[in-house]
Input
Amino acid sequence: MKAEIIAVGSEMLTPFRQDTNSLHVTEKLNALGVTVNFKTIVGDRQRDLVSAIRTALGRVDILILMGGLGPTEDDLTREAVAESLSLTLRRDAAQVAALHARAASWRIPMPENNLKQADVIAGATVLPNPNGSAPGQWLDITFGGYRKLIALLPGPPRECRPLFDAECLPRLKFIVPPRTIAVRTLKAAMIPESQADKLLAPIYTTYTDVETTLLAHTGDLQITLICSKPDADTAWKRVDELASRIEEALEDWLYSSDGDSLEQIVLYYLGLRQATLAVAESCTGGLLAQRITSVPGASRSFLGGIVVYSNEMKTQFAGVPMELIAEYGAVSAEVAKALAEGIRSRTGATVGASITGIAGPTGATDTKPVGLVHIAVCDPQGCDAVERTFRGDRRHIREWAAQLALDMIRRRLM
Amino acid sequence: MKAEIIAVGSEMLTPFRQDTNSLHVTEKLNALGVTVNFKTIVGDRQRDLVSAIRTALGRVDILILMGGLGPTEDDLTREAVAESLSLTLRRDAAQVAALHARAASWRIPMPENNLKQADVIAGATVLPNPNGSAPGQWLDITFGGYRKLIALLPGPPRECRPLFDAECLPRLKFIVPPRTIAVRTLKAAMIPESQADKLLAPIYTTYTDVETTLLAHTGDLQITLICSKPDADTAWKRVDELASRIEEALEDWLYSSDGDSLEQIVLYYLGLRQATLAVAESCTGGLLAQRITSVPGASRSFLGGIVVYSNEMKTQFAGVPMELIAEYGAVSAEVAKALAEGIRSRTGATVGASITGIAGPTGATDTKPVGLVHIAVCDPQGCDAVERTFRGDRRHIREWAAQLALDMIRRRLM
Output
């Protein structure tokens, strides 16, 4: 079966925003054996929406609409779907009650315009949205002589994605003919992209029945293997076989064979070694701590960190001697090591890690360019220290530095 | 005039890749006064391409196609445009010669299929591509009684973007009636979306010549006003007039009248007051510090922060009494205040801010649900403290908490 995804919202037709929900939905549809043949992005104009919907209904079986279900005058997806199908909208009493209950539980008054979120297309099933006020809708209809499945989903990712997974996927599974698609994701850190391709292309190009995608992003390489076969055993055998050949080729660049993030792996190793971690950051300003603490349960191994932007804080919170900073500068191997050792001893953590660098755009000196970063990782057995100069803007340099620090912690724990 | 962008390539219909060329092209089109009404992403299937092209020609004046001009069997854009317009393709002798010359200069043999890159649609102008082998094409035709401008551009960003700028923009400038587009972006923090719409819809809906877009994301509301007029003064007058009415209605929810981020505004106020800031975070794990330090020059006002995940660190690094934590719990107004006061006094910062909460999914108790957050902001005049319970997943709760803390710092500085 063929699908089209329509992302609704004028903001996605500006130079500033992109639809990302469709990536999630595409992944889930592909896993069912449904291909996405078109994606359309359309603004909050009813005439344009109707044009996009009618076009889609003429060329695909499954239509997923995302966005335009909110309470504002700009939210027109319900109205446009109804118009495209010549169906009516009715205000659903149960939904009106739910909206009132929701407002009451938040102790906020409910504006009249909120009620348009209770408008339901004739014949549609309401899909409950536990993460927002606008419910989704599901239509299973005959249009132009063909069966069409239409989902209306809210636009915010944290509403759209769970709602699709909870309400649309089970319905689609029931309708779409079964097929096995084996998928595995391998991950590697800090390997140069060209080196990865040189290592891996001779391997994966021989597996013509496995679709291999390499995706690199600031020191993180994601390798996705997809194989679709009539029978599950063959599909998984092919994917697993290619995966082990890739794992072997990547050696210790590889950090995950099943899609875990680098921060998850670091926390996994910490747990395994019954070790704890504390960090001291300068130029990354909390980015490293933030990545680690984004993982649920991080508190079991992560004690905390310090963001020491001023030299005084480096001394006061990590015990870095003032003279050391004066002699070598705040961005130096010596200060990086003192920071890592300092946060380790002050917190009693098994592992201490530090980052100090020049994220730019200002702050460079004659001897220290923008992008220069010193990272140290210390444990009872000693310290690893690395100096690197990253290219790119402030954001880029910070992201690279945090990624390298995480990878150094991983390698120290291995 | 209205435009549609069609990005061609099956890889952009996978979960792993997105079109990004369209953002560049959109920005340049908008600057000419051309709005992008639709974006369509279509795979390398001729039937799908023809469907997308015919649909586009039925609803816009300018059609920009990107991708599908290479030498492989999958590259079908030339063929699909010709079929959609019932035009023929001819192999262009000059282009064939250019391809041979290019191959010779690279000292590589030229495969026969490369020659399809020399196929030109009848009536099209060839657009030279200095960065790749496939030239672009430009059609200025009458279709269905209307003038249509069609550009065929190569897909790789480093070919597509320069080619659009060098060859399409000058042609479009010559054809598109001159207009000025006035754009302003206002921003507000922590205002509920429905309340914003209730306040603002009665205002902006009366300005039918200004396109107003409201975009809300975890407590951040962005309002973009776009007005296109033949004459610059009128366009700016309309946008500025609507902007001041919106500013008035939003009162102190508004934090920026020209698109600055909340962290930029906080740093701006700190600079203005010659004040410094230090933060202590628990559940946000560095997210607040990371947002502040993402702004270049943050070090002028931001001293640093601590990420105090363990109770011991709360005591050791911010001087929170153990007994206070034992009595009220780490997630409490009392500990939030002690953290904010503690980091302030230890660092000597003018303003100290703290966040403590339960980001989940675990950690809830009978009296303290997941999502409960206490935030405190202290300065020499006193403290603001707020308790909120946010809904959503770990990531969401952390983002809301950091946003509210930034907004409380802003309000404290106002």
Summary: The longest strand of chain A covers residues 180-189. Chain A touches chain B through 91 residues (CB under 8 Å).
